[in-house]
Design brief:
It is a single chain. With 86 residues, the chain is mostly beta strands. It has one domain. It is 0% helix and 14% strand. The chain has a two-stranded antiparallel ribbon.
Length: 86
């Protein structure tokens, strides 16, 4: 299950280069957007659960990359206090 993802397909690689490096940070969600933040929106949580040091990824032209992001000192997931809704 993806909690979040980045799609770097639209970013430009400099002319003549076959790869580029990008820094991936983790930031809080703007409170005005939190309702649309999947399971986090219903709880009003907008700050990351834990901490993360930004990482640098190297993207090669015409290839795909999958990178797991591990949050340090994150909270233990607890069931919602309310029952299943539809």
């Amino acid at each position: 299950m993806l909690e979040g993802s980045f799609d770097l397909a639209g970013l430009q690689i400099p002319n003549g280069a076959t790869s580029a490096q990008y820094q991936l940070p983790v930031e809080a969600v703007d409170p005005l957007w939190s309702r649309n933040a999947g399971p986090y929106g219903s709880a009003g949580q907008v700050k990351p659960s834990g901490s993360f040091q930004p990482m640098i990824v190297t993207v090669k032209l015409g290839s795909s990359l999958q990178q797991d992001i591990l949050m340090q000192s994150s909270a233990v997931q607890k069931p919602q206090w309310y029952g299943t809704t539809s």
